[in-house]
Amino acid sequence: MKKFYWSIFEDTPSLTIMSMEDFHDYTMMILTMITSFLMILMMKLITCKFKNLFLLEGQTLELLWTILPMVILVFIAYPSLFYLYFSDLSLNPSVSMKVFGAQWFWIYELTDFKSINFSSYYLNDEEMMTKNKPFLLGWRLLECDTRAVLPMNSEIRIMVTSQDVIHSFAIPSLSLKVDAIPGRLNWMTTFIKRPGLYYGQCSEICGVGHAFMPISVDVINKEDFIKFVKTFN
To answer: Which residues span the membrane (predicted)?
Structure first.
């Protein structure tokens, strides 16, 4: 989870954001080299004495500063397109979860094993403080009465749509953000490497209850996920 005053990426369990972090580091390395070169060049221009004051052209220099930026852009564009393609690639997902946005709750469906359908509503402060609930020390405005459950170390496809207005299914710690649009099915794949409890919220202003559409996903190992599917009522 993000902490106050952080200026770095959070420790994510998602392979998608891990690849994006690698691309960020790669791009920053290139930008650092370019910036260092320009700083050295500027210092040279300030301290050196000018020569060749009557030089009219330099074919080699002009060719160099035309081709070199093109080469640098190619080295940046290729991994960028690769990761963009990788983020949308879905060869054989192990689990497909359907998410329906509604005012102001979420509906989840898991139909790969057997038909599992449930709604997830926001828990207010009074409900969180009820001793019969297991969320006594939960996060305000983030806890739900029913959590979505997904397996770790599996390719997961999340399909999102809406029943009324435009919503947005967003879980920052899993690098997930999919718009829920009525009449349109958007999807995204993810691969989660660590178990845990991950929170998100609707990221599209969808009415008076927009602030009360939390997302709570419980990521567990495959064996426990199979038990959950078998015992779900």
So the answer is: 23-42, 63-86
Instruction: Give the SS3 label for residue 5.
Output: coil
For 60-184, where are the E strands, in sequence order? Answer: 95-102, 105-110, 116-120, 148-151, 155-162, 167-171, 176-180
pLDDT at 135 over 90: no
CATH of domain 15-88: 1.10.287.90
Kindly state the average pLDDT of the residues 95-111: 90
How open is the CA angle 80-176-9, to the nearest 5 degrees? Answer: 65
Within the chain, all domains assigned CATH 2.60.40.420 are found at 95-231
> Does pTM surpass 0.70?
yes
Quickly list H helices, 1-100.
15-47, 59-88
